[in-house]
Design goal:
heterodimer, B: mainly alpha, Ferritin, 69% helix
Chain lengths: 259, 278
């Protein structure tokens, strides 16, 4: 499954760099938050220089959420978002243990590991915001899509099956958060949802490309770095099918709310 | 059904994939009218500060000039870079820089204020991307970038079309609010972009520049979601930011880099409204 094209040392190095950057961002962000709270409220973002650059991690988003006015709909949105993340973490964790994933394409396995960590971070951010707003943390999976997963898991026999299910979940997450940006009541929550939706969309984009490569018998090209010269033409566009991210399949805020 | 390299049974044929792609394209086309309708609604929301007729005429002139020296200048810069190795400076970049600086200094304060300042910035960023991809495709077609992988050509063509759709959506908001559309690239960083494009001689160079533009756009729209007040503006920014991020993911993959590098989209590469020169 394409292992001959893998540069596993490079992949490991890139993954480590990414994790280091994330850790640094979270640490710097936490340090910056106290300072941020002291600033005059009308100071604009591009005038804040390096400190704003540090406000990239989830902790920054939580910090700005702390003082925000929230509604019951906001809390339900955060809980439903956490439930979608919980389900995603569960599915990816299950997938990672499947023999054809665990012993298969190293790039796919690494992607699943990294994506699981990112969904975990998203879930923590949503739950932290929910509790800071006076709600309960949601530790259960989204009930609607948990049922879909329960029905689908026994039929999964190949990496393509895993990819197809993951695409569904990533798309639901991206659509839901894109929709919630317009539904929540304050800017800090808009920022939180708007900073996560593109990451889920990127997961979907990669998975769509992987799906196309699998379907075209080009599994060997699922590698980092890939052989760009050998990528089929469709691989260049299959990863972003919509000019505007849709929201028709977004989950209602009540879907995963704590009862 | 066909078997994959790993020996599994693949659940989809190429015919099915083509059909699904066609369905997605149709869904995209169905979505556009709704986006335009939403943009029109937003325009109505923002139609509160009408500029004078003279100011509109001045801005329209500046926008047309910006187009000729902006997006058009990108193509010229690429052509110059491709045709001559002795070019020390890019005359198109210089002239566009001068024109844009002139526009900015002559205009004093912009009529694109409040939410519309960010909408204008977004429109200019989209035009910048369309110009860059168009120039890259032209240079590739002329054989100026070496061998261009088919996937890169498809990427550039599709991404350019989507950026053009985004520009239309943003411009609909501007014109709906009684402001002139922005058809050029009235950004103070355009000369630097032109210069960088002019220096590119291969696909990797183009992809890296495109990645910068995509990251800048995605992060600017993230910023917009929590800094504009209009519901239509928030929804438009929220629906475009993920698409630019998807472009960036595929570019990262093509460049041999991890395609989803951030847990949360940052804003450190977001464009400042102060880049606007109109």
């Amino acid at each position: 499954m394409g292992e001959e094209n893998l540069d596993t040392r490079l992949l490991a190095g890139l993954t480590e760099q990414s994790q280091d950057l994330n850790s640094d961002a979270v640490r710097i962000t936490r340090e910056a938050l106290a300072e941020y709270g002291q600033q005059e409220p009308d100071r604009r973002w591009w005038q804040r220089g390096g400190m704003v650059a540090a406000l990239a991690g989830g902790a920054a988003l939580l910090g700005t959420t702390r003082a925000a006015a929230t509604t019951s709909n906001d809390i339900m949105a955060l809980q439903t978002a956490a439930s979608i993340e919980n389900l995603a973490v569960s599915v990816y964790t299950t997938a990672a243990a499947l023999p054809f994933i665990k012993d298969g394409n190293k790039t796919v396995a690494a992607f699943i590991a990294k994506t699981t960590a990112q969904h975990t971070a998203h879930g923590q951010a949503f739950n932290a915001a929910a509790t800071q707003a006076g709600g309960k943390a949601q530790n259960a999976p989204d009930p609607k899509y948990a049922a879909v997963v329960k029905q689908t898991l026994p039929t999964i026999k190949t990496p393509a099956d895993v990819v197809k299910l993951a695409i569904t979940l990533e798309d639901v997450a991206a659509q839901t958060y894109t929709s919630y940006v317009s539904q929540v009541s304050d800017a800090a929550l808009r920022r939180l949802f708007a900073s996560v939706a593109p990451v889920e969309a990127q997961h979907r984009s990669v998975l769509l490309a992987v799906q196309a490569l699998l379907a075209g018998n080009d599994a060997a090209l699922i590698a980092i770095p890939t052989d760009a010269a050998k990528l089929p033409a469709a691989a260049g566009s299959v990863g972003f099918p919509d000019a505007f991210y849709p929201t028709t399949n977004a989950s209602p805020t009540s879907e995963g709310a704590v009862q | 059904m066909s078997a994959g390299n790993g020996g599994w049974e693949l659940p989809i044929s190429e015919g099915e994939l083509s059909r699904l792609t066609k369905d997605l394209d149709e869904a995209h086309r169905e979505y556009l009218p709704r986006m335009h309708a939403a943009a029109a609604d937003l325009g109505e929301e923002l139609r509160d500060t009408q500029p004078t007729r003279a100011r509109v005429a001045e801005l329209r002139s500046a926008s047309r000039r910006g187009f000729l020296l902006g997006a058009g200048g990108v193509a010229a810069a690429m052509a110059l870079a491709a045709c001559s190795s002795s070019t020390k400076s890019d005359p198109m970049a210089s002239s566009s820089s001068g024109a844009m600086s002139g526009s900015a200094s002559a205009s004093g304060s912009s009529v694109y204020t409040g939410d519309l300042e960010i909408v204008a910035l977004a429109t200019a960023l989209e035009n910048q991307a369309v110009g860059a991809y168009g120039a890259a495709l032209a240079a590739a077609k002329a054989g100026k970038l070496g061998t261009v992988p088919p996937a890169v050509g498809t990427f550039a063509t599709t991404a350019m079309a989507q950026h053009a759709d985004h520009a239309k959506a943003w411009n609909a908001i501007l014109t709906g609010a009684g402001k002139p559309a922005i058809t050029g690239v009235p950004l103070s960083n355009q000369p630097a972009t032109l210069k960088a494009l002019g220096a590119v001689t291969d696909v990797a160079g183009v992809a890296n520049l495109a990645l910068e533009l995509e990251n800048q756009a995605a992060q600017t729209y993230l910023y917009a979601t929590y800094n504009v007040t209009s519901a239509g503006g928030i929804a438009t920014a929220a629906s475009i930011a993920p698409v630019e991020a998807m472009h960036a993911a595929i570019l990262n993959f093509v460049l041999g880099q991890y395609p989803v590098p951030d847990d949360f989209l940052p804003t450190d590469k977001a464009a400042s409204p102060s880049l606007l020169t109109v």
